[in-house]
Amino acid sequence: MTGKERVLMTLNHKMADRVPWVPFAGVHAASLIGKNATEALTDGDVLFDSLMEVKKLYAPDGMPVIFDLQIEAEILGCELLWADKGPPSVASHPLEDTTKLPCDCTQPAPDKGRLPMVTDVMKRMSAEVGEDTALYGLICGPFTLASHLRGNNLFMDMILNEEYVNSLMEFTTTTALKMIDMYIDAGMDVIAVVDPLVSQISPEHFESMCHESFKTIFDYIKAKGKASSFFVCGNATRQIEVMCKTDPDSISIDENVVMKDAKEITDKYNITIGGNIPLTTLMLHGTQQENMKFVVNMIDELSNDNLIIAPGCDMPFNVPAENTIGVAQAVRETDKVRTMVENYEAPKEDIYVELPDYDNLDKPLVEVFTLDSATCAACTYMMGAMNVAGDEYGKKIELVEYKFTEKENIARCVKMGVTNLPCVYINGKLQWSSIIPSKEELFKVIDGLL
User: Fold this and answer.
1) Would residue 7 count as lying in a domain?
2) What angle do CA 200, 201, 204 make, to 5 degrees?
3) Does one domain contain both 26 and 93?
4) Which residues make Cβ contacts (< 8 Å) with residue 429, sequence separation at least 6?
5) pLDDT tens for residues 68-123?
6) Residue 396 to residue 399: CA distance in whole angstroms
7) Contact of 188 with 137, CB cutoff 8 Å
8) Nearest to residue 365, comparing CAs of 401, 408, 409, 412?
9) d(CA 283, CA 325)
């Protein structure tokens, strides 16, 4: 059985010979050939060569061609901030000061933005490995794209101007359908709708303002004869059920969600679930044996039907290749690896972290815990909301971001009792977890401390 057959059987809810393995290598792929993220996301030859290295080293059953949620936003007028070790982030929002919708003529087309490069690489990958590897075309989901266009104002719009949000979602849904057509024409087997900001809203808001868009998208993919995945980063625990009701073939989640609990829900709807190897604590900072043991334990703990093993999200740039190779081996040779690691104990790191004296602060302290606001969309918008407070209050408050990609900050999260990212603590107390506050909510809390 080929990897492609294995993935597609699983997405069609049939039992394959083993659990499929789909590494979301993203910008990490560039590190394998000594290139940076920006080079891979702008140069077709670099992107192709990096993907072929992923294929050679990690022996994937399926793989994304590009993991960049800003392709559509760039075409629609957002300015991007580029990075060497992560995908670009959105630096400007063309609808921030207006509720006028973009003209349809601005929608993505085969000759716009980076799409000529992206679709060319998709065609090259399809010709080179498409017979035995399921290729994923990742598009930016309609809600996150709406956030790219409108900025943090979108979260207040959801309360005060639901009609506008619905109109904007119609526009971004049309964008998604156009991207789907182009990616299917370029040879993609699976269309993954990646919408990290869905984890930052309530299930009620999802049902009232997002359900119709996602249902339209997944029905469209199904009508095209292709498989689909609904990919949400962050703590999407409360959204799993409403996501299932949009009828995707699969759902992908990250480490913020308990896989066993989520699978009980997806199994009820006969939907495949993928994930959720921890990105930083395990893939980036763990040992090869830790990664292997985690995967074996996941395979042993969960029913192996309707299951795909994958990283929780786009892999960090500097993940050691041996860790991912270990994951691949654990999937392919589970019995052998189980024996290899059954007595393995991970080394303990004793990193000292001193917390602030929260009872005796000179001014309100706003601490933002993120995966990395430069690379994680949900973290970008959470940090963006806090930066609004920084601009408003200036030196009256202290604002700091702790990125989970750094070992010291992982230790800080443990000591603080942080369980989900992104989240905000004010004066040492959890204020918002996986919910982006409106400006008014944020200012009300800070004003109460001044």
Assistant:
1) yes
2) 155
3) yes
4) 358
5) 999 999 999 999 999 999 999 999 999 999 999 999 999 999 999 999 999 999 99
6) 10
7) yes
8) 401
9) 11
Give the Å distances, CA to CA, from 139 to 108, 109, 147, 175: 12, 14, 15, 9
Phi, psi at residue 81, to the nearest 5°?
Answer: -110, 115
Please report, for the domain that includes residue 372, its CATH number. Answer: 3.40.30.10
- The dihedrals phi and psi of 377, each to the nearest 5 degrees, come to -60, -45
Query: What is the C-alpha to C-alpha distance for residues 167 and 164, in angstroms, rounded to an integer?
Result: 5
Boundaries of domain holding 330: 3-341
Under 8 Å CB-to-CB from 450, ≥6 apart: which residues? 363, 364, 393, 396
Strands 272-277 and 307-311: parallel
Tokens at residue 362, please?
Answer: 């000179």
Residue that is last in its domain, among 281, 310, 341:
341
Give the pTM: 0.90
Cβ atoms 232, 196 nearer than 8 A: yes
Name the one residue in this structure whose structure tokens are 């359900």: 211
User: Quick one: 336 and 362 in the same domain?
Assistant: no
Domain shared by 69 and 41, yes or no:
yes
Number of domains into which the chain is organized:
2
pLDDT at 415: 92
Query: Residue 39 is inside which H or E element, if any?
Result: helix 37-42
* Size (the chain), residues: 450
Task: Give domain status of residue 353, yes or no.
Answer: no
419 and 386 within one domain:
yes
